[in-house]
Design goal:
The complex is a heterodimer of chains A (352) and B (551).
Chain A (H helix, E strand, L loop, with lengths): L37 H32 L16 H30 L3 H4 L2 E7 L2 E6 L2 E6 L1 E5 L4 E7 L4 E5 L4 E5 L5 E5 L5 E7 L11 E7 L1 H4 L12 H16 L19 E4 L2 E4 L1 E6 L2 E6 L2 H9 L5 E2 L17 H13 L5
Parallel strand pairs in A: 1-5, 4-10
Antiparallel strand pairs in A: 1-2, 2-3, 5-8, 6-7, 6-9, 9-10, 11-12, 13-14, 13-15
Chain B lengths: L27 H5 L4 H29 L10 H37 L7 H23 L13 H4 L4 H28 L12 H33 L12 H35 L6 H14 L15 H29 L8 H24 L1 H7 L3 H31 L5 H27 L14 H31 L53
Helix pairs in contact in B: 2-3, 2-4, 2-15, 3-4, 3-6, 3-7, 3-8, 3-13, 4-6, 6-7, 7-8, 7-9, 8-10, 8-11, 8-13, 9-10, 10-11, 11-13, 11-14, 13-14, 14-15
The chains are: A alpha+beta (352), B mainly alpha (551).
């Protein structure tokens, strides 16, 4: 169990720049506030100050007593044998009680603010789907999804509907001061009003298994004009390598849940070995399929893959254990994206 | 073992018996089958001590792994197992049973002037249930480990392919051990107080153990049922917690914290009891606000049942529930603050002996102040939404569970060590170790407060590189803390071999535990003691008993 396994640093998908220290607020304790939830900071520092006051008081009296009243001879009696002092005890019961009630009211008021989303936020509704161990985002009035990265417009209240497809997760953005558990079987929501442009961490804060710590997304808060260019839907395919890279990111978003690239059988066939490289050309493998009820063997090529994405039941794979499984059709997937996926599939045959 | 006759007795007219509880009989069965509360306490001490060292080893591995952002030692899966083992061992095998099981067993009947606990056979059964639980927990490691965290949150604990049922059975068994101990102590306090020992003449350690026992009996069954339900859910797919079967994972959180919040006080109340004793003895001054401290123990025990929801502020409770749970959470701060103030007021104008038990006590008072005050920060609803499940929470509860409870345990151990064994450890080494532990502890957890408030989530095997500096500082602190504990183990074990005799009344205590020979004979008192003084009345102290070595 305690096998010392070395890790592949490339597997980590944190995008943060290691050299960049976090930007802190003026008091140097919380990350710089990027939303309107300033009451969190206010109460945090108020409580902090009260805590420091009482801590200094307690430790001060302790140290003073230890210095002044430490036992010099073994038979030294106590300087005083007072066993109680009612006024003093009332004071140190009532004053803390008043202070904590102030904190309670302040905290509850702030919590109400965070709990009830304003109308404007519910009109700007995103969806974050959590599963082990990734985040998938849907945009308001937009068919595209993005994976572990999301863009939101600055200075516009936003609400996220949170859904989990497996275990507990939590949506945590330290800079926005928001956290909400993502609970399978329930729809939770969280809202905030981003005030600063930039890139912010989105952590999973509820333990969810092996790669809990790698369940990370980057939140880009951008100007409305940038948001309108739909940066989550950019596609680079100027060279075959770029197309393959774009294809790989799309593969991770929509294909990886059913198709492996390392030969492991999943819901659908693995992409490994779909093409082999012969000289400069990629050659497709032979595959048994069922077309119109008749079994036949075909050679995998671009046309077959395109057809399988758009109309997966046309030529259905006849190999075990996939026969019983049906693939989701993607009839509207753009041609350049299909080409990117094929390019990525072919690139798997490249010598590593 | 020394067989010398104690010279001074509380009742010197009666001839002393020649033997004490350690050497009155020998052989494996005289220990394995013993009904003597002191021997059972000693066995608990060894058992929980080993569990603490194992849990500490896991903690050092966790800290070492986090030296680098990518993780230095383990795969993610293994890391998750190691932090789970650290939590489960520390909570279930050490923090909950350690003080009641070892020092409670050892000292409480002495303080009551009783021959033993009320139900000695049940006491032995409690210990064997603890052993069974420890074996089952160890078995779970051999069966491949478990990676659910000590909280076993569903539905992850239902889906993971690891030894959850085995550790569930361990927790179930340990729960019964805890219930039996609690039951036993409640009966003992009610029935076996010496003549003249009224409720308000009881030492505060007894009050604290009594309040703890009530909590153990009332809260632990809920945990037992909950882990049993998780086991059934895994084996038979009933659909209580599993959302795929129509169950509710949040229901588990409610069940779990309904036990586990009172459990925090099951852990910390005995520590409060130890500190109350030690502050009084080593300041040679009656405890300030005795009744208020006694009642605050009971108040904490009651309110602690009503605050479990503050572990779930982010899980989407209704705002009415959040209102009530936050309000009551702040309310529980008050009796806790009263205790801290009363201890400080006791030390004020005392005759303060700066020996090692007192140094551990002072370390406790400083660390517990931080642990308690940071709890107030977490009690605010909006602030908790930011800090929940971050390293701030980790640091907060380590300040309470390690910094306060374990340090109080160490303080009590140093205080009653000469009573238990009749030998003294090396005081100089003890003071050095206390200093190392204090510095190491704070160096470990202060960086965790800072990175937690900056947003570092807990239970992370890897982390964003910007937190690396804090993690390194924390790891250095943990190594120092480990050295301090190792030094402590060394001089305590060495004292048993060197056998430097302790004084009859090493620290000048006036409660009944210091009125028996050292170490105590088999049935504690040669003649049944009578209590005629108020508790902590230092005018009755025989100062010379502090300077007469035993034998």
């Amino acid at each position: 169990m305690f096998a010392l396994l070395t890790q592949d640093p490339a597997k980590i998908n944190y995008v943060a720049d290691p050299a960049k220290a976090p930007t802190l607020d003026a008091f140097g304790q919380l990350p710089e506030l990027a939303s309107t939830f300033g009451h969190v900071d206010g109460l945090f520092y108020f409580t902090y100050a009260v805590c420091i006051f009482f801590f200094v008081l307690i430790v001060g009296v302790l140290l003073f007593s230890v210095v002044k009243y430490h036992r010099k001879t073994f038979d030294q009696p106590a300087a005083s044998n007072v066993t109680h002092n009612t006024p003093l005890e009332v004071v140190w019961t009532v004053i803390p009680l008043i202070i904590v009630m102030v904190m309670f009211a302040w905290g509850f008021d702030g919590c109400m603010d965070m709990h009830y989303a304003p109308h404007a936020a519910s009109q700007n509704q995103f969806k974050a789907t959590a599963k082990q161990w990734s985040w998938t985002f849907n945009y308001p009035n937009d068919p595209s999804q993005s994976f572990n990265e999301v863009w939101i417009p600055v200075d516009k209240p936003v609400q996220f509907v949170l859904e989990s497809t497996d275990v507990l997760h939590a949506f945590y953005m330290p800079s926005m001061r928001v956290k909400r558990d993502v609970i399978p079987g329930r729809l939770q929501t969280v809202w905030f009003h981003p005030k600063k442009e930039g890139e912010f961490h989105l952590f999973c804060a509820e333990y969810c298994g092996d790669d809990h710590s790698r369940m990370y997304a980057k939140v880009h808060v951008v100007k409305q004009s940038v948001y309108d260019t739909r940066p989550w839907d950019q596609w680079k395919d100027a060279t075959p390598a770029e197309a393959a890279a774009s294809g790989e990111s799309l593969y991770k978003q929509i294909c990886a849940s059913c198709h492996s690239v390392n030969g492991t059988p999943s819901v659908g066939p693995s992409w490994k070995g779909m093409f082999t490289k012969q000289g400069e050309n990629y050659v497709g493998r032979q595959r048994e399929v069922v077309e119109g009820g008749a079994k036949k063997t075909i050679t995998v090529d671009d046309a077959y893959i395109t057809e399988s994405i758009q109309k997966p039941d046309q030529k259905k794979v006849a190999e075990e254990p996939y026969v019983k499984n049906a693939m989701t059709a993607f009839p509207t997937l753009e041609e350049r994206k299909i080409k990117g996926l094929i390019q990525y599939m072919k690139s798997l045959a490249d010598a590593k | 073992m020394t067989t010398n006759v104690p010279v001074i007795d509380a009742h010197p007219a009666v001839p002393s018996l020649p033997k004490n509880y350690l050497n009155c009989s020998a052989g494996f069965m005289s220990w394995a089958g013993t009904l003597d509360h002191k021997r059972i306490g000693l066995m608990y001490l060894i058992g929980t001590g080993i569990a603490f060292l194992a849990g500490g080893l896991f903690a050092l591995l966790v800290r070492l792994h986090l030296w680098e952002p990518h993780g230095m030692l383990f795969s993610n899966e293994t890391y998750n197992q190691v932090f789970t083992l650290h939590g489960a061992f520390m909570v279930f095998l050490f923090v909950i049973p350690a003080i009641p099981g070892s020092l409670g067993n050892m000292v409480m009947p002495l303080m009551l002037g009783a021959k033993d606990v009320a139900l000695p056979r049940l006491n032995l059964l409690s210990f064997y249930l603890w052993i069974t639980g420890a074996v089952l927990a160890t078995l779970a490691i051999i069966l491949g480990g478990f990676d659910t965290g000590w909280t076993f949150y569903t539905p992850y604990s239902l889906y993971t392919d690891q030894a959850v049922v085995s550790i569930g059975l361990a927790v179930f068994t340990l729960g019964f051990s805890s219930i039996f101990t609690g039951l036993n102590f409640i009966v003992t306090v009610h029935k076996l107080r010496a003549p003249g020992l009224t409720w308000f003449r009881m030492p505060l350690f007894v009050w604290a153990i009594y309040a703890t026992s009530i909590l153990q009996v009332l809260a632990t069954p809920v945990l037992g049922i909950t882990v049993l339900l998780v086991a059934f859910e895994r084996l038979y797919h009933i659909g209580i917690f599993d959302p795929r079967l129509g169950g509710d994972p949040v229901l588990f959180e409610h069940f779990f914290w309904f036990y586990s919040h009172p459990a925090v006080y099951i852990m910390v109340l005995p520590a409060f009891g130890i500190i109350s004793e030690l502050v009084s003895v080593h300041s040679r001054k009656p405890l300030f606000g005795y009744k208020l401290i006694a009642f605050s123990s009971i108040a904490i025990a009651i309110i602690s049942f009503l605050v479990w929801g503050h572990h779930m502020f982010t899980s989407g409770q209704s705002t009415y529930a959040m209102f009530a749970f936050s309000f009551l959470t702040f309310f529980v701060a008050i009796p806790t603050a009263i205790k801290e103030f009363s201890w400080v007021a006791t030390i004020w104008k005392g005759s303060i002996a700066l020996n090692s038990p007192m140094l551990y006590t002072l370390a406790f008072l400083i660390i517990f102040a931080i642990g308690g005050l940071t709890g107030v920060i977490l009690g605010s609803l909006n602030v908790d939404l930011h800090l929940h499940d971050t390293y701030f929470v980790v640091a907060h509860f380590h300040y309470v569970m390690m910094g306060s409870i374990a340090l109080a345990f160490f303080a009590g151990l140093h205080h009653w060590w000469p009573k238990m064994f009749g030998v003294m450890y090396d005081e100089t080494l003890a003071k050095i170790a206390c200093g190392i532990i204090f510095v190491g502890f704070n160096a470990t957890f202060i960086p965790q407060f800072i990175m937690g408030s900056q947003g570092m989530p807990r239970r992370y095997a890897t982390y964003v590189p910007e937190f690396a500096g804090y993690h390194m500082a924390s790891t250095c602190g943990a190594m120092l803390l480990g050295c301090g504990v190792a030094l402590m183990v060394y001089y305590l074990v060495a004292s048993l071999l060197q056998r430097k005799p302790a004084m009859e009344n090493q620290w000048g205590g006036v409660t009944l535990d210091w009125q028996t020979p050292t170490p105590p004979p088999l049935e504690n008192f040669h003649t049944p003691p009578k209590v005629v003084h108020e508790v902590y009345d230092y005018s009755t102290l025989d100062l010379h008993s502090m300077q007469r070595p035993i034998s």
